[in-house]
């Protein structure tokens, strides 16, 4: 009998929950609080976006919308593009990715390594322009847009996987869930599951302060708010600024041994702020991706040869 070997898609999810040991303040500890990072960088393509990327392809296949050999199109700031590139390569699809030209070079190079075609859009247009261009390419018959911003498979996979994992890993003790918001799929889907299990769980959505440019976190103009966003799924909306997000990303690496990206730093900063205000809480935040995607930026220390 042949053994059951895993495919790369079988490695998505089941990421660890890691307790912060040194960053948490003495006052937060005295309040009886625990802060836990859901380390999504352990997914095969290195981020929380592996979950919706795979789910959107599988969902489109099940509905008969695509089949191997077709071309997929997506607008992305980085992590969804990398995740889609991984999944498309494993499942036999062509992939065109549109991303703002100011995205980190590591992200673009990683997508290309998986075989995706990269189209850089003007920085001034940000993600809004990339989304508009992707939609036009689909109208021109150049491929199928999966549309992470409107695709219900995005929050659904978090409701089916991320939420249950958080609940099981905390043995149902989670009291607060904190997530940075980009497409909003993570916070909406996870909230639906956790609120069903315990309506008293507090859901905190993290967005960038006005003027901040934090990769992976967005403050959308009204006409571009993702269609999958459900305001009722989020109890609190908190802003984080760029400096505190970058500082916390550096601290997580240097003080906790968790090498994460800037959006993870923002979520951690919000979780630690929360830990100063509540008591006897089990706070879980999403550490969205790995820090090695930001080495060409000014976030982490440079080493001279």
Automatic annotation (TrEMBL):
Record's keyword annotation contains DNA repair: no
Family: Belongs to the cysteine synthase/cystathionine beta-synthase family.
Gene field: cysM
Record GO terms (molecular function): cysteine synthase activity
Name of the protein in question: Cysteine synthase
Residue span(s) of domain Tryptophan synthase beta chain-like PALP: 9-289
Pathway: Amino-acid biosynthesis; L-cysteine biosynthesis; L-cysteine from L-serine: step 2/2
Catalytic reaction list: O-acetyl-L-serine + hydrogen sulfide = L-cysteine + acetate
Cofactor list: pyridoxal 5'-phosphate
Enzyme class, broadest EC rank: transferase
UniProt-listed Pfam families: PALP
SUPFAM superfamilies from the UniProt entry: Tryptophan synthase beta subunit-like PLP-dependent enzymes (SSF53686)
């Amino acid at each position: 009998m042949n053994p059951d070997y895993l495919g790369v898609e079988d490695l998505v999810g089941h990421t660890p929950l890691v307790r912060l040991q040194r960053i948490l303040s003495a006052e937060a500890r005295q309040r009886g609080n625990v802060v836990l990072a859901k380390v999504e960088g352990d997914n095969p393509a290195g981020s929380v976006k592996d979950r919706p990327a795979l789910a959107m392809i599988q969902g489109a296949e099940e509905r008969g919308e695509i089949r191997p050999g077709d071309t997929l199109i997506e607008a992305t700031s980085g992590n969804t593009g990398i995740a889609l590139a991984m999944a498309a390569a494993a499942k036999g699809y062509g992939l065109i990715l549109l991303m703002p030209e100011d995205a980190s070079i590591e992200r673009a190079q990683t997508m290309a390594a998986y075989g995706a075609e990269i189209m850089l859009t003007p920085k001034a247009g940000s993600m809004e322009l990339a989304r508009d261009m992707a939609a036009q390419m689909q109208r021109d018959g150049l491929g199928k847009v999966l549309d992470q911003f409107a695709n219900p498979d995005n929050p659904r996979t978090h409701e089916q996987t991320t939420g249950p994992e958080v609940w099981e890993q905390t043995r149902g003790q989670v009291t607060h869930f904190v997530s940075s918001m980009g497409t909003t799929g993570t916070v909406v889907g996870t909230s639906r599951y956790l609120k069903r299990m315990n309506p008293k769980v507090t859901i905190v959505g993290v967005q960038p302060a006005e003027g901040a440019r934090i990769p992976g976190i967005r403050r959308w103009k009204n006409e571009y708010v993702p269609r999958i966003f459900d305001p009722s799924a989020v109890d609190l909306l908190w802003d984080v600024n760029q400096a505190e997000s970058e500082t916390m990303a550096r601290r997580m690496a240097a003080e906790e041994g968790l090498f994460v990206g800037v959006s993870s730093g923002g979520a951690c900063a919000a979780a630690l702020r929360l830990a100063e205000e509540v008591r006897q809480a089990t706070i879980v935040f999403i550490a969205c991706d790995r820090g090695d995607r930001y080495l060409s930026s000014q976030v982490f220390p440079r080493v001279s040869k």
